[in-house]
Amino acid sequence: MSTTEEQLDALKDIRQMMDRSSRFISLSGLSGVFAGVIALIGAYFAQDEIDKFINNRGYSYGVEGEIDLEYNLVKLGLIVLFVALAGGILFTYRKSQRNNLPIWDKTSKSLVINLFIPLVTGGLFIIALLVNHPGTYSIIAPSCLVFYGLALINASRYTYSDIRYLGFCEVALGLICMFYVGYGLIFWAVGFGLLHIVYGLLMYFKYEKGK
Question: I need a labelling partner for 54 at 20 to 30 A (CA). Which of 65, 102, 148, 164 fits?
């Protein structure tokens, strides 16, 4: 091996070490695929609840029925979030163990903090809508997409930069959904379901498969 090649290899190793110290690279693409599948399943059950409400199957008429529907949709959303997070943590943990990297360090802590600032803000905003403005539930889906996209953009500096583009797509989808509020569940399924699956597969084949 020539001196030039040795120097290039040394520079490559230094760059990899710097990248590992500044970015959380244990994030698994399969966790995105899993989250997308769970979101699509959740969207299916959410549509079933909405159909029951429209056809008055198990729901009361008027405001009381709307409140029950909102409660069931929020409960379903929390279950989907919990399962998706649990799966994401599991896949990420497996990847970190395989690559002999810590799953919780200064970088991952910064990632979580920057991810949750917009998420918590959006969550409180949506709760305020549900409590004080019951008639505005139609903008909950676009609000979820916009705040989630902002969270991804905010956290992208601490992990793969590719996640920034997913964030831009989520924000754009949420803003478009604002003008088509009657199709909120469809946009929600596309944003949290299909986009996650596509992103997860791209990340898996780019960073994980064969490595």
Answer: 148
At 92-140, the pLDDT tens digits run 888 778 777 777 778 778 888 998 999 999 989 988 887 887 667 778 8
pTM: 0.81
Question: Is there a domain that residue 184 lies in?
Answer: yes
d(CA 123, CA 196): 20
Query: According to the model, what pLDDT value does residue 207 have?
Result: 78
Give the torsion through C-alpha atoms of 30, 33, 39, 41, to 10 deg.
Answer: -100
Determine the pLDDT at residue 20. Answer: 46
> Is 41 a residue whose pLDDT tops 50?
yes
Integer angstrom CA distances of residue 45 from 19, 50, 198:
41, 9, 22
In a domain, 15, yes or no: no
φ, ψ dihedrals at 24, nearest 5° = -85, 105
Angle at 82 between CA 56 and CA 111, to 5 degrees: 135
Comparing CA positions, the residue from 210, 211, 209, 207 lying closest to residue 19 is 207
Which range marks the domain in which residue 201 is found? 27-208
User: Do 146 and 122 form a contact (C-beta atoms < 8 A)?
Assistant: yes
Cβ–Cβ under 8 Å, residues 76 and 42:
yes
- Residue 8 is assigned to a structural domain of this protein: no
Structural domain count, the chain: 1
- Measured distance CA(122)–CA(150) in Å, rounded: 10
**1 lies in some domain:** no
pLDDT at position 195 is 94
Q: What is the DSSP letter of 178?
A: T
